[in-house]
Design brief:
The protein is built from 18 helices and two strands. It has about 450 residues and is mainly α. It has one domain. Strands 1-2 form a two-stranded antiparallel sheet. Helix 4 packs across helix 5, helix 4 (about 80-95) packs parallel to helix 8 and helix 11 packs antiparallel against helix 13.
Protein backbone atom coordinates (compact mmCIF):
# COMPACT_ATOMS: atom_id res chain seq x y z
CA UNK A 1 0.00 0.00 0.00
CA UNK A 2 1.20 3.42 -0.81
CA UNK A 3 1.65 6.23 1.63
CA UNK A 4 -1.59 7.88 2.71
CA UNK A 5 -2.53 10.86 0.70
CA UNK A 6 -1.85 14.13 2.48
CA UNK A 7 -3.81 17.19 1.46
CA UNK A 8 -1.79 20.03 0.09
CA UNK A 9 -1.30 22.80 2.65
CA UNK A 10 -3.49 25.81 2.07
CA UNK A 11 -1.40 28.91 1.51
CA UNK A 12 -3.31 31.85 2.74
CA UNK A 13 -2.92 34.92 0.64
CA UNK A 14 -2.13 38.07 2.57
CA UNK A 15 -4.99 40.45 2.82
CA UNK A 16 -4.84 43.23 0.29
CA UNK A 17 -5.17 45.69 3.17
CA UNK A 18 -1.92 44.43 4.75
CA UNK A 19 0.21 45.95 2.02
CA UNK A 20 2.56 48.52 3.62
CA UNK A 21 1.38 51.46 1.53
CA UNK A 22 -2.25 50.71 2.38
CA UNK A 23 -1.50 50.50 6.08
CA UNK A 24 0.38 53.81 5.93
CA UNK A 25 -2.62 55.46 4.29
CA UNK A 26 -4.91 53.81 6.82
CA UNK A 27 -2.72 55.00 9.69
CA UNK A 28 -2.99 58.60 8.58
CA UNK A 29 -6.73 58.11 8.12
CA UNK A 30 -7.10 56.84 11.68
CA UNK A 31 -5.09 59.80 13.00
CA UNK A 32 -7.37 62.20 11.12
CA UNK A 33 -10.45 60.45 12.51
CA UNK A 34 -9.16 60.59 16.09
CA UNK A 35 -8.17 64.24 15.70
CA UNK A 36 -11.57 65.08 14.25
CA UNK A 37 -13.33 63.51 17.21
CA UNK A 38 -11.19 65.40 19.71
CA UNK A 39 -11.60 68.73 17.92
CA UNK A 40 -15.38 68.32 17.87
CA UNK A 41 -15.49 68.21 21.67
CA UNK A 42 -16.86 71.39 23.28
CA UNK A 43 -13.70 71.66 25.39
CA UNK A 44 -11.66 72.16 22.21
CA UNK A 45 -13.12 75.60 21.45
CA UNK A 46 -12.90 78.92 23.26
CA UNK A 47 -16.70 79.31 23.25
CA UNK A 48 -17.40 75.84 24.63
CA UNK A 49 -19.48 74.93 21.59
CA UNK A 50 -18.83 71.94 19.34
CA UNK A 51 -17.12 72.54 16.01
CA UNK A 52 -19.02 71.27 12.98
CA UNK A 53 -17.80 68.14 11.24
CA UNK A 54 -16.43 69.80 8.08
CA UNK A 55 -14.24 72.30 9.95
CA UNK A 56 -13.06 69.64 12.39
CA UNK A 57 -12.11 67.23 9.60
CA UNK A 58 -10.41 70.03 7.67
CA UNK A 59 -8.33 71.14 10.67
CA UNK A 60 -7.41 67.59 11.71
CA UNK A 61 -6.33 66.71 8.17
CA UNK A 62 -4.36 69.93 7.85
CA UNK A 63 -2.55 69.15 11.11
CA UNK A 64 -1.85 65.45 10.45
CA UNK A 65 -0.76 66.24 6.90
CA UNK A 66 1.41 69.11 8.27
CA UNK A 67 -0.17 71.60 5.90
CA UNK A 68 -1.34 74.63 7.86
CA UNK A 69 -4.41 75.65 5.86
CA UNK A 70 -7.22 76.72 8.20
CA UNK A 71 -10.88 77.58 7.94
CA UNK A 72 -11.02 79.15 11.42
CA UNK A 73 -8.54 81.30 13.33
CA UNK A 74 -6.32 78.91 15.29
CA UNK A 75 -5.86 81.10 18.38
CA UNK A 76 -9.34 82.64 18.28
CA UNK A 77 -11.41 79.50 17.71
CA UNK A 78 -9.53 76.73 19.49
CA UNK A 79 -8.98 76.54 23.23
CA UNK A 80 -5.68 75.49 24.77
CA UNK A 81 -6.93 71.90 24.66
CA UNK A 82 -7.73 72.24 20.96
CA UNK A 83 -4.34 73.81 20.23
CA UNK A 84 -2.57 70.98 22.06
CA UNK A 85 -4.55 68.45 20.01
CA UNK A 86 -3.48 70.25 16.82
CA UNK A 87 0.14 70.26 18.01
CA UNK A 88 0.01 66.53 18.78
CA UNK A 89 -1.44 65.83 15.34
CA UNK A 90 1.33 67.89 13.72
CA UNK A 91 4.00 65.97 15.62
CA UNK A 92 2.43 62.63 14.77
CA UNK A 93 2.06 63.53 11.11
CA UNK A 94 5.60 64.88 10.88
CA UNK A 95 7.27 61.85 12.37
CA UNK A 96 4.94 59.52 10.55
CA UNK A 97 2.25 57.33 12.01
CA UNK A 98 4.19 54.18 11.19
CA UNK A 99 7.41 55.58 12.66
CA UNK A 100 5.70 56.22 15.99
CA UNK A 101 4.06 52.80 15.92
CA UNK A 102 7.41 51.15 15.28
CA UNK A 103 9.05 53.09 18.12
CA UNK A 104 6.36 51.92 20.53
CA UNK A 105 6.79 48.33 19.32
CA UNK A 106 10.53 48.55 19.95
CA UNK A 107 10.05 49.94 23.44
CA UNK A 108 7.52 47.27 24.41
CA UNK A 109 8.80 44.10 22.76
CA UNK A 110 12.42 44.94 21.86
CA UNK A 111 11.90 43.14 18.59
CA UNK A 112 10.51 44.04 15.20
CA UNK A 113 8.81 41.67 12.78
CA UNK A 114 9.28 41.68 9.04
CA UNK A 115 5.82 43.12 8.39
CA UNK A 116 6.41 46.01 10.82
CA UNK A 117 9.78 46.66 9.16
CA UNK A 118 8.09 46.82 5.77
CA UNK A 119 5.50 49.25 7.09
CA UNK A 120 8.00 51.66 8.58
CA UNK A 121 10.23 51.32 5.52
CA UNK A 122 7.33 52.53 3.37
CA UNK A 123 6.92 55.56 5.67
CA UNK A 124 10.58 56.50 6.32
CA UNK A 125 11.98 55.47 2.91
CA UNK A 126 14.76 53.53 4.67
CA UNK A 127 17.10 51.97 2.14
CA UNK A 128 17.26 48.52 3.74
CA UNK A 129 15.24 46.58 6.28
CA UNK A 130 18.16 46.18 8.67
CA UNK A 131 18.45 49.97 8.88
CA UNK A 132 14.86 50.50 9.99
CA UNK A 133 15.38 49.95 13.72
CA UNK A 134 18.28 52.39 13.87
CA UNK A 135 16.66 54.92 11.54
CA UNK A 136 13.48 55.17 13.60
CA UNK A 137 15.40 55.94 16.77
CA UNK A 138 17.51 58.55 15.07
CA UNK A 139 14.49 60.21 13.50
CA UNK A 140 12.78 60.66 16.85
CA UNK A 141 15.88 61.84 18.71
CA UNK A 142 16.94 64.21 15.94
CA UNK A 143 13.43 65.66 15.56
CA UNK A 144 13.01 66.29 19.27
CA UNK A 145 16.49 67.79 19.54
CA UNK A 146 15.89 70.25 16.69
CA UNK A 147 12.48 71.21 18.05
CA UNK A 148 13.95 71.74 21.52
CA UNK A 149 16.71 74.04 20.29
CA UNK A 150 14.28 76.08 18.18
CA UNK A 151 11.78 76.26 21.04
CA UNK A 152 14.42 77.55 23.46
CA UNK A 153 15.55 80.34 21.15
CA UNK A 154 11.99 81.35 20.23
CA UNK A 155 10.84 81.28 23.85
CA UNK A 156 13.65 83.55 24.96
CA UNK A 157 12.96 85.92 22.08
CA UNK A 158 9.22 86.07 22.76
CA UNK A 159 9.89 86.75 26.46
CA UNK A 160 12.64 89.35 26.05
CA UNK A 161 11.65 91.03 22.80
CA UNK A 162 7.85 91.08 23.09
CA UNK A 163 7.28 91.17 26.87
CA UNK A 164 5.36 87.89 26.93
CA UNK A 165 4.95 86.23 30.33
CA UNK A 166 7.32 83.29 30.77
CA UNK A 167 4.63 80.63 30.46
CA UNK A 168 3.08 82.18 27.37
CA UNK A 169 6.52 82.66 25.79
CA UNK A 170 7.41 79.00 26.31
CA UNK A 171 4.04 77.88 24.96
CA UNK A 172 4.40 80.04 21.85
CA UNK A 173 8.02 78.94 21.42
CA UNK A 174 7.20 75.22 21.62
CA UNK A 175 4.16 75.52 19.36
CA UNK A 176 5.95 77.43 16.61
CA UNK A 177 9.10 75.26 16.86
CA UNK A 178 7.16 72.03 16.35
CA UNK A 179 5.07 73.62 13.62
CA UNK A 180 8.20 74.90 11.86
CA UNK A 181 10.30 71.73 12.01
CA UNK A 182 7.37 69.67 10.75
CA UNK A 183 6.73 72.19 7.96
CA UNK A 184 3.19 72.71 9.21
CA UNK A 185 2.76 76.49 9.17
CA UNK A 186 0.23 76.67 12.01
CA UNK A 187 0.63 79.84 14.06
CA UNK A 188 -0.98 81.21 17.20
CA UNK A 189 -1.09 84.72 15.73
CA UNK A 190 -4.05 85.96 13.66
CA UNK A 191 -1.63 87.40 11.08
CA UNK A 192 0.70 84.39 11.22
CA UNK A 193 4.24 85.86 11.43
CA UNK A 194 3.63 89.21 9.73
CA UNK A 195 4.28 90.99 13.02
CA UNK A 196 7.84 89.62 13.04
CA UNK A 197 8.79 90.48 9.46
CA UNK A 198 11.85 92.52 10.57
CA UNK A 199 12.90 90.24 13.45
CA UNK A 200 15.94 88.15 12.41
CA UNK A 201 15.73 85.95 15.52
CA UNK A 202 12.23 84.75 14.68
CA UNK A 203 12.75 84.60 10.92
CA UNK A 204 16.12 82.85 10.88
CA UNK A 205 15.28 80.28 13.57
CA UNK A 206 11.97 79.29 11.97
CA UNK A 207 13.50 79.25 8.48
CA UNK A 208 16.37 77.04 9.70
CA UNK A 209 13.94 74.62 11.35
CA UNK A 210 11.88 74.45 8.17
CA UNK A 211 14.92 73.80 5.97
CA UNK A 212 16.38 71.10 8.23
CA UNK A 213 13.03 69.35 8.61
CA UNK A 214 12.38 69.56 4.88
CA UNK A 215 15.72 68.15 3.71
CA UNK A 216 14.72 64.60 4.56
CA UNK A 217 16.09 62.36 7.26
CA UNK A 218 18.40 60.24 5.04
CA UNK A 219 20.05 63.40 3.72
CA UNK A 220 20.43 64.95 7.18
CA UNK A 221 22.00 61.79 8.58
CA UNK A 222 24.44 61.54 5.69
CA UNK A 223 25.39 65.21 5.99
CA UNK A 224 26.06 64.67 9.69
CA UNK A 225 28.50 61.89 8.81
CA UNK A 226 30.20 63.33 5.74
CA UNK A 227 29.54 67.08 5.68
CA UNK A 228 33.27 67.74 5.20
CA UNK A 229 33.58 65.21 2.38
CA UNK A 230 31.10 66.08 -0.39
CA UNK A 231 32.82 63.61 -2.72
CA UNK A 232 31.41 60.80 -0.56
CA UNK A 233 27.83 62.03 -0.74
CA UNK A 234 25.25 59.77 -2.30
CA UNK A 235 23.26 60.81 -5.36
CA UNK A 236 20.25 61.52 -3.13
CA UNK A 237 22.20 63.91 -0.92
CA UNK A 238 23.92 65.67 -3.83
CA UNK A 239 20.70 66.22 -5.72
CA UNK A 240 18.74 67.29 -2.66
CA UNK A 241 21.32 69.77 -1.36
CA UNK A 242 22.12 71.24 -4.77
CA UNK A 243 18.49 71.61 -5.81
CA UNK A 244 17.47 73.02 -2.43
CA UNK A 245 20.15 75.72 -2.49
CA UNK A 246 19.38 76.61 -6.10
CA UNK A 247 15.64 76.90 -5.48
CA UNK A 248 16.12 78.96 -2.31
CA UNK A 249 18.39 81.40 -4.14
CA UNK A 250 16.11 81.62 -7.17
CA UNK A 251 13.06 82.11 -4.98
CA UNK A 252 14.74 84.86 -2.95
CA UNK A 253 15.79 86.74 -6.09
CA UNK A 254 12.33 86.44 -7.68
CA UNK A 255 10.48 87.58 -4.55
CA UNK A 256 12.88 90.48 -4.00
CA UNK A 257 12.59 91.65 -7.60
CA UNK A 258 8.81 91.21 -7.88
CA UNK A 259 7.88 92.68 -4.51
CA UNK A 260 10.56 95.34 -3.94
CA UNK A 261 8.28 98.21 -5.02
CA UNK A 262 5.03 96.69 -3.76
CA UNK A 263 3.79 99.04 -1.01
CA UNK A 264 1.76 96.22 0.57
CA UNK A 265 4.68 93.79 0.95
CA UNK A 266 8.39 94.65 0.68
CA UNK A 267 8.00 98.31 -0.32
CA UNK A 268 8.07 99.88 3.18
CA UNK A 269 11.05 97.78 4.37
CA UNK A 270 14.72 98.66 4.28
CA UNK A 271 17.09 96.78 2.01
CA UNK A 272 18.39 94.26 4.61
CA UNK A 273 14.83 93.54 5.76
CA UNK A 274 13.72 93.15 2.14
CA UNK A 275 16.35 90.47 1.56
CA UNK A 276 15.42 88.67 4.79
CA UNK A 277 11.69 88.80 4.03
CA UNK A 278 12.26 87.60 0.45
CA UNK A 279 14.42 84.72 1.72
CA UNK A 280 11.80 83.83 4.32
CA UNK A 281 9.08 83.80 1.66
CA UNK A 282 11.25 81.56 -0.54
CA UNK A 283 11.80 79.10 2.32
CA UNK A 284 8.14 79.03 3.32
CA UNK A 285 7.00 78.33 -0.23
CA UNK A 286 8.95 75.07 0.03
CA UNK A 287 5.94 73.58 1.94
CA UNK A 288 6.22 75.31 5.33
CA UNK A 289 3.27 77.70 5.14
CA UNK A 290 4.33 80.48 7.50
CA UNK A 291 4.13 83.98 6.05
CA UNK A 292 5.70 87.25 7.17
CA UNK A 293 4.20 89.08 4.17
CA UNK A 294 0.55 89.42 3.19
CA UNK A 295 0.12 86.55 0.72
CA UNK A 296 -3.05 88.07 -0.70
CA UNK A 297 -1.08 91.22 -1.61
CA UNK A 298 1.63 89.42 -3.62
CA UNK A 299 2.06 90.31 -7.28
CA UNK A 300 1.01 87.80 -9.96
CA UNK A 301 4.69 87.08 -10.61
CA UNK A 302 5.24 86.14 -6.98
CA UNK A 303 2.11 84.00 -6.91
CA UNK A 304 3.30 82.09 -9.97
CA UNK A 305 6.78 81.63 -8.48
CA UNK A 306 5.16 80.39 -5.27
CA UNK A 307 3.06 77.90 -7.25
CA UNK A 308 6.19 76.45 -8.80
CA UNK A 309 8.16 76.30 -5.54
CA UNK A 310 5.23 74.78 -3.66
CA UNK A 311 4.64 72.13 -6.28
CA UNK A 312 8.31 71.08 -6.26
CA UNK A 313 8.44 70.95 -2.46
CA UNK A 314 11.31 69.72 -0.31
CA UNK A 315 13.41 66.62 0.22
CA UNK A 316 12.25 63.01 0.25
CA UNK A 317 11.52 61.23 3.56
CA UNK A 318 11.25 64.53 5.39
CA UNK A 319 8.43 66.69 6.68
CA UNK A 320 8.07 68.65 3.44
CA UNK A 321 5.47 68.00 0.76
CA UNK A 322 5.27 68.55 -2.99
CA UNK A 323 6.55 66.16 -5.60
CA UNK A 324 9.99 66.54 -3.93
CA UNK A 325 13.17 68.15 -5.25
CA UNK A 326 14.64 64.75 -6.15
CA UNK A 327 11.70 64.07 -8.45
CA UNK A 328 12.04 67.47 -10.07
CA UNK A 329 15.82 67.19 -10.46
CA UNK A 330 15.62 63.65 -11.83
CA UNK A 331 13.19 64.76 -14.52
CA UNK A 332 15.65 67.52 -15.39
CA UNK A 333 18.42 64.94 -15.79
CA UNK A 334 16.13 62.80 -17.97
CA UNK A 335 15.49 65.77 -20.25
CA UNK A 336 19.19 66.61 -20.38
CA UNK A 337 20.13 63.04 -21.28
CA UNK A 338 17.49 62.99 -24.02
CA UNK A 339 18.73 66.28 -25.46
CA UNK A 340 22.27 64.87 -25.60
CA UNK A 341 21.11 61.63 -27.19
CA UNK A 342 22.21 59.44 -24.28
CA UNK A 343 20.45 56.14 -23.80
CA UNK A 344 21.00 56.17 -20.02
CA UNK A 345 20.50 58.85 -17.39
CA UNK A 346 23.62 59.51 -15.34
CA UNK A 347 24.01 61.67 -12.23
CA UNK A 348 27.66 62.14 -11.44
CA UNK A 349 29.26 58.72 -11.71
CA UNK A 350 26.06 56.81 -11.12
CA UNK A 351 23.39 55.61 -13.55
CA UNK A 352 19.75 56.11 -12.57
CA UNK A 353 17.61 52.96 -12.91
CA UNK A 354 14.74 53.12 -15.36
CA UNK A 355 12.35 52.34 -12.50
CA UNK A 356 13.31 55.56 -10.71
CA UNK A 357 12.73 57.53 -13.89
CA UNK A 358 9.24 56.07 -14.37
CA UNK A 359 8.41 56.73 -10.71
CA UNK A 360 9.47 60.38 -10.99
CA UNK A 361 7.41 60.82 -14.17
CA UNK A 362 4.36 59.16 -12.59
CA UNK A 363 4.53 61.30 -9.44
CA UNK A 364 4.90 64.54 -11.42
CA UNK A 365 2.09 63.76 -13.86
CA UNK A 366 -0.25 62.55 -11.12
CA UNK A 367 0.46 65.75 -9.22
CA UNK A 368 -0.24 67.93 -12.24
CA UNK A 369 -3.44 66.04 -12.96
CA UNK A 370 -4.70 66.36 -9.39
CA UNK A 371 -3.95 70.07 -9.21
CA UNK A 372 -5.55 70.83 -12.58
CA UNK A 373 -8.67 68.78 -11.86
CA UNK A 374 -9.04 70.32 -8.39
CA UNK A 375 -8.58 73.83 -9.77
CA UNK A 376 -11.35 73.24 -12.31
CA UNK A 377 -13.63 71.96 -9.56
CA UNK A 378 -12.86 74.86 -7.22
CA UNK A 379 -13.44 77.41 -9.97
CA UNK A 380 -16.97 76.07 -10.36
CA UNK A 381 -17.61 76.60 -6.65
CA UNK A 382 -16.32 80.13 -6.21
CA UNK A 383 -16.07 83.49 -7.96
CA UNK A 384 -12.41 84.01 -7.08
CA UNK A 385 -9.85 84.48 -9.85
CA UNK A 386 -7.83 81.67 -11.39
CA UNK A 387 -4.50 82.73 -9.87
CA UNK A 388 -5.89 82.58 -6.31
CA UNK A 389 -7.77 79.32 -6.82
CA UNK A 390 -4.73 77.68 -8.42
CA UNK A 391 -2.56 78.93 -5.56
CA UNK A 392 -4.94 77.35 -3.04
CA UNK A 393 -5.02 74.02 -4.90
CA UNK A 394 -1.24 73.81 -5.19
CA UNK A 395 -0.81 74.81 -1.55
CA UNK A 396 -3.17 72.03 -0.45
CA UNK A 397 -1.67 69.34 -2.68
CA UNK A 398 1.89 70.25 -1.71
CA UNK A 399 0.87 70.44 2.00
CA UNK A 400 2.21 73.99 2.22
CA UNK A 401 -0.46 75.96 4.03
CA UNK A 402 0.04 79.33 2.37
CA UNK A 403 -3.24 80.98 1.43
CA UNK A 404 -4.45 84.10 -0.31
CA UNK A 405 -7.30 84.19 2.19
CA UNK A 406 -9.98 82.40 0.20
CA UNK A 407 -9.95 79.07 2.06
CA UNK A 408 -12.48 80.15 4.68
CA UNK A 409 -14.76 81.54 1.93
CA UNK A 410 -15.05 78.23 0.10
CA UNK A 411 -18.30 76.25 0.44
CA UNK A 412 -18.33 72.96 2.40
CA UNK A 413 -17.76 71.02 -0.84
CA UNK A 414 -14.64 73.11 -1.47
CA UNK A 415 -13.38 72.42 2.04
CA UNK A 416 -13.84 68.70 1.52
CA UNK A 417 -11.99 68.90 -1.80
CA UNK A 418 -9.10 70.77 -0.17
CA UNK A 419 -9.11 68.17 2.61
CA UNK A 420 -8.77 65.38 0.05
CA UNK A 421 -5.93 67.21 -1.67
CA UNK A 422 -4.05 67.63 1.61
CA UNK A 423 -4.42 63.96 2.48
CA UNK A 424 -3.37 62.84 -0.99
CA UNK A 425 -0.41 65.20 -1.04
CA UNK A 426 0.87 64.01 2.33
CA UNK A 427 0.96 60.28 1.66
CA UNK A 428 2.06 60.80 -1.93
CA UNK A 429 0.21 60.31 -5.20
CA UNK A 430 2.13 57.18 -6.07
CA UNK A 431 1.67 55.71 -2.58
CA UNK A 432 -2.05 56.35 -2.75
CA UNK A 433 -2.27 54.79 -6.20
CA UNK A 434 -0.40 51.72 -4.94
CA UNK A 435 -2.64 51.51 -1.88
CA UNK A 436 -5.76 51.49 -4.02
CA UNK A 437 -4.47 48.91 -6.48
CA UNK A 438 -5.40 45.32 -5.66
CA UNK A 439 -2.01 43.87 -6.45
CA UNK A 440 0.88 44.24 -8.84
CA UNK A 441 0.80 41.94 -11.86
CA UNK A 442 4.09 40.84 -13.36
CA UNK A 443 4.14 39.70 -16.99
CA UNK A 444 6.17 36.69 -18.04
CA UNK A 445 6.43 37.76 -21.64
CA UNK A 446 7.62 40.74 -23.68
CA UNK A 447 5.78 42.29 -26.61
CA UNK A 448 7.62 43.32 -29.76
CA UNK A 449 8.67 46.98 -29.78
CA UNK A 450 7.16 49.56 -32.11
CA UNK A 451 8.20 53.21 -32.05
CA UNK A 452 5.61 55.93 -32.27
CA UNK A 453 5.88 59.59 -33.20
CA UNK A 454 6.55 61.79 -30.15
CA UNK A 455 6.06 65.55 -30.37
Amino acid sequence: MGAPHRPMPVVRQASRWQHPTRVVAGGFGVAVAVGTGLLMLPIATTTGESTDLVNAVFTATSAVCVTGLVTVDTAGHWSTFGEVVILALIQAGGLGIMTLATLFALLVSKRLGLRAQLLVQAETKALSLRDVRRVVGRIVVFSLACETVAALVLSVRFATGYDMPAGQAVYHGVFHAISAFNNAGFSLNPDNLMGYVTDPWINIVIAAAVIVGGLGFPVVFELARNWRRPHLWSVLTRVTVTATIALLVIGTVVFAAAESDNPRTLGPLGDPDKVMAAFFASVMARTAGFNSLDTAALTPESLLASDMLMFIGGGSAGTAGGIKVTTFALLGYVIWAEMRGHARVDIGRRAVPAGNQRQALAIALLGVGLVVASTFALLSMTTHSLDKVLFEAVSAFATVGLSTGITADLPPAGHLLITTLMFTGRIGPLTLASALALRSHGRRYELPEERTIVG
